[in-house]
Amino acid sequence: MPDPATLALAAAVATGAVSKIAEVVSQATIDDFKSLRRTLFRYFRGVPDAQEALDEARVEPDDDDAIASVADHIERAAAADPEVRRLVDALTAEIGEDRGGTHVNSFSGDNRHGISIQARTVNGGVHQWNAP
Fold first, then answer.
1. Closest by alpha carbon to 40, among 2, 91, 3?
2. pTM of the entire structure?
3. 96: Cα within 13 Å, side-chain hemisphere
4. Residue 15 in contact with residue 58, Cβ under 8 Å?
5. What is the pLDDT of residues 57-100, one digit of tens each?
6. Please, what is the Cα angle at 18 between 103 and 4, to 5 degrees?
7. What's the CA dihedral at 34, 39, 40, 42 to 10 degrees?
8. CA distances, 43 to each of 7, 37, 68 (Å)
9. Residue 6: how many CA atoms within 13 Å on its side-chain side?
10. Taking a C-beta distance cutoff of 8 angstroms, is the pair 17, 37 a contact?
């Protein structure tokens, strides 16, 4: 299974929405994302399985399996092509930066409908609240 940063990139590539990477992005990140997307589209045209995965993810961007398949192909492309590697590394570094609230979370399987808590500092404990 690809790491969460690569999954975020795959979702962004499939949808064209750089907001899938992070809530706040620099112009350099937007430029790198556009370059990665163009490069991957060109690269995937020569790899039928990758093109099929990308097409599926573009049609069904909420399909976790389709996004994971694109992420797998992104990892393969990055291993084979230095320019893809450079762009992926630049963007995953951007995703991984701690900006005081921008994080990538990935949920799958039976855990998608459970409770998730992400916190920096908690004083006094965490208690479940049930809405009336």
1. 91
2. 0.68
3. 10
4. yes
5. 999 988 999 999 999 999 999 999 999 999 999 888 877 654 44
6. 40
7. 130
8. 18, 10, 18
9. 17
10. no
